[in-house]
Specification:
mainly alpha, two-stranded parallel sheet, two-stranded antiparallel ribbon, 9% strand, globular
Length: 295
């Protein structure tokens, strides 16, 4: 298992700055949020959206991302039944983060009567942020899987790494998520302007990420089988793919490519709402032009 073809990493999982100890996964997550946010801001400007709103959206992303990821991990692992285990710095499921962040930002966008394209702007930066954020997990040896001599297997030689044996290479769930996030961003960024209907980018990102997590799950030893040979993460991924498919169909039916509703509805292309009289304008004009027959 110590083949020369595997990836070898000997970096200390923490950085000591006097009394302060910084973990690589925390550092790279912070950098990922910033870099992903830059991609989001660029797409928002291209859409003509108010980028000042992104500060609030970014705060919602961080807070509800952590809450959602921790909550789903507790549910999948069964630790939700033990309140003493609720708080911790280890144990997060990004599927939960995706779900709760989408709900929180969706509620904010609807309450503030903003364009649904804000959701697409956040979605387009997700893959890039994920790819950078998971680099710290690779350095730390987190989310490792079975021993392997596969060319993408990782051998963490530092004695403080999470992997159980510094002489053995393991499948790296962190590395596979780096590649998954990079692939999502590389695929969708050049095509982002083709997703003209609001929320279509969101559903594309959700479906691609969930499908990738489904495939990745068997290569991680921290996944727990739930039913029918599938882990909790895989079942969550199946649900997310179905939801994404239904969401995309709904978005295609409700919205024209310019962002307006295909049928009656309140969301228009920007932060304005469509007046009922605007839809009945020609009929009202004809009614005003008719001669008055009353005596």
């Amino acid at each position: 298992m110590t083949a020369l073809s595997v990836i070898e990493i000997g970096i200390d999982p923490t950085i000591e700055l006097g009394p302060i100890s910084l973990a690589w996964h925390g550092i790279t997550i912070a950098v990922g949020i910033v870099i992903g946010g830059l991609a989001t801001a660029r797409h928002a400007r291209e859409r003509g959206l108010d980028t000042e709103r992104l500060a609030t959206i970014g705060l919602l992303l961080v807070v509800f991302g952590l809450l959602g990821a921790r909550l789903l991990y507790l549910i999948e692992s069964g630790d939700i039944a033990y309140p003493g285990r609720w708080l911790g710095t280890r144990g997060f499921s990004l599927n939960g983060s995706v779900v709760l962040v989408a709900v929180a930002i969706g509620v904010y966008v609807r309450r503030e009567r903003l364009s649904l394209h804000y959701l697409d702007a956040v979605a387009i930066g997700f893959g890039l942020g994920l790819a950078i954020g998971r680099i710290g997990d690779v350095i730390n040896g987190e989310h490792y899987g079975p021993p392997s001599d596969f060319l993408l297997a990782v051998r963490n030689t530092h004695p403080e790494a999470d992997t159980p044996d510094p002489a053995v290479a393991f499948h790296s769930g962190g590395l596979y998520e780096v590649l998954l996030g990079a692939a999502i961003f590389a695929l969708l960024w050049p095509l982002r302007h083709r997703f003209r209907r609001p929320t279509m980018l969101v559903w594309a990102v959700v479906a691609l990420y969930a499908a990738g997590r489904f495939v990745e799950s068997p290569f991680r030893l921290d996944e727990i089988e739930l039913a029918l040979g599938l882990s909790g993460t895989q079942w969550t991924s199946v649900v997310l793919v179905l939801v994404a498919g239904l969401g995309a169909l709904g978005a295609r039916r409700r919205h024209q490519p310019d962002g307006r509703r295909s049928r009656q509805g309140r969301w228009c292309g920007g932060n304005e709402t469509e007046s009922p009289n605007a839809r009945r304008g020609p009929e009202l004009d004809r009614a005003r032009d008719r001669p008055d027959t009353k005596s």
